[in-house]
Amino acid sequence: LIRWLDDRTGIRKVVREALYERIPGGARWRYVWGSTLVFCFFVQAVTGIVLWMSYSPGGQSAWESVYYIQHHLTAGWFLRGLHHFTAQAMVILLVLHFMQVVIDGAYRAPREINFWLGLLLMQVVLGLSLTGYLLPWDQKGYWATRVATNLMGLLPGVGSQLQSLVVGGSDYGHGTLTRFFALHAGILPAALVGLLGLHVALFRRHGIKVKTPEKRPETTFWPDQVLKDAVACLAVLAVVVYFVVRPGLPAFLGGEGAEWSARHLGADLGAPADPSEPYSAARPEWYFLFLFQFLKLFEGPAEVWGAIYLPGIVMGVLFLMPLLGRWKLGHGFNVGLLAVLLLGVFFLTGRAIYDDRVAAWFERDKFQASEEQKKLYENSEQFLLASREAEQNATRVIDLLERKDEAGSPMLAPIEGAVALLRNDPFTQGPRLFAVHCGNCHSHAGGTGFELPAQNPSAPNLAGVGSRQWLSGIFDAARISGPDYFGATKHAEGQMAEFVKADFASLGAEEQDSLKKMIEALSAQAGLPGQAAADRADAERIAEGEKILSSEGEEGEPWILKESTGQYCMGCHTFSGKGTEGVGPDLTGYMSREWLIAFISNPEHARFYGPRDDSDSQGNDRMPAFAANPDSPQSNLLTRRQIEIIVDWLRGDYDRREVP
Ligand code: HEC
Ligand code: HEC
Q1: Cβ(495) to ligand 2 under 6 A?
Q2: Cβ contact 650:526 at 8 Å
Q3: Is residue 644 left, alpha or beta, with left meaning phi > 0 and alpha meaning psi from -120 to 50?
């Protein structure tokens, strides 16, 4: 069969030539770099094509398809992890290969053209990395690539045209993604295959550049060098696999504190890209960090020097290396230049990481000496904060996607893409809306999670609003006029505060328990999800509490105090159709979703505080009506949905299934 095949194709000769290439001076480890690079490219092509089978380039589907690959495709995380980390390995191997070539002087005649091909290959590989970073369409890739494409626009003359060519129009977005994908999966790999073919062909033509061929006897490529190359490729693969599974190793080996799940394994997937949510902690891949740091040295119009001219000049000098290397001195210069460049890259990368993380590593007081140091520390704090928030969002969006409905089937991502889940999510958006619209008066401190200690709170602290614990402060003579409740409002001296201070200042044990029952009853009106179990368990006490609450001082009605001053809740409030209108807010459904939405929409409504009245303590004190006009929504401060989001968040009702 082989003879038949050879007769028709001449295959034997080709194989023989390929395998029995001469290696003067014997097989060596230092020659393996080129082979490992070809191997990595092969891995990238295979994993890339398989990824392609599940990937969908599009503003509303890219992230979703990568999420599917990472979390639902069998071993998808492994596939994605391989592709991700092999790309990083390629960059490192490129540097090693380049170093070996320069140090060995392998660029000298007649190998100049092959050296230049190598440099072009390096650019193509970096181009593949850059384009690949955008494809998951997550926050970090989106914002980092946006910076990169903006730099392109700095080029004088053709800059803006070039930028819109790459970005796909004037807007960075879906069009950019489709272009980057075409580059990443079409043009660049084709260029790489073409250049690589030429590179290998020329390499074969000139043979290996050997420094001192006489040291060891000549061998052939097969089997000696092939064995070394194979071992090196396997070693690279092993390192890559190690990085893919690394986060899951402790769990796998029986350690604690780590999870063996696709959330942690393989490559990271941030929250879906959201053009309306600038992400200040976006950074390029680590091997571009040095450029990012280098750019910080240039400001304003000088930026084009850092971004384009200087890197261009360095590239130009690299291209001149074979010509300089003709002289001994020139070769020395080349090696020296390479060393300086690498040191510079190391230093800048380290510096970039240090600048970002300094606040995590050192105490603040060490950085108070100068304005510059303070700024450095603050920037780092902001970076860490933004990264934490980004991580939280990434986890949250997956939580939302993995939710099951009552029938146990998974929720689907909305048609606008997974980013709509986050935009509509009380847990994510609640604190933001609160900070902007409520935080200048209210604080939100001491609860679980989000802390917003207002500078000078001028309204109640709303952390845990409606819960038993929160309510107990209102009926505490020592706290009702304190900073967490009515302290900074005109109600500090109001009828409620007066009543509480007069009647509840010194209660006996039995009275205390009656008060507790009443608080439990009032709190049950809120129907807080976090308190549902307690509300169910205390149903009896709550029923008694409701009686106390709605007592009007009639014969046989229970009341907290054995001897009353004649004041009852129902003298000033309404509850379940009983009571007195026009004094204090309605307590029916107090702090329930409906009550809160109505209250925030218009606290001046007769059901709540009534119109502002500056002459006495009654009436609304400064709390704006956020949606007073149901008939003309555009004139309102907040939309209905925004209010719902704030309310669901305040009530810890994060997982409502209502589709807005
Ligand atoms: C200009 C200051 C101000 C802003 C802004 C403000 N509030 Fe208020 N809020 C008050 C004051 C003062 C009260 C006390 C009751 C009153 O006088 O209306 C209050 C009361 C409340 C209450 C009733 C709880 C209690 O302890 O009485 C809730 C709930 C509330 N605000 C929620 C919000 C939310 C949510 C926002 C943002 C959408 C907000 N407030 C914005 C000043 C403000
Ligand atoms: C003398 C009249 C009066 C009595 C009695 C009274 N309240 Fe009030 N209550 C008010 C007024 C008025 C406010 C509004 C704040 C202010 O101006 O003091 C208020 C506020 C409240 C609030 C806070 C409302 C909000 O916006 O969050 C709650 C809760 C409350 N009362 C519950 C009760 C309960 C329960 C009782 C009975 C144990 C009671 N009140 C007795 C007049 C009264």
Answers
A1: yes
A2: no
A3: alpha
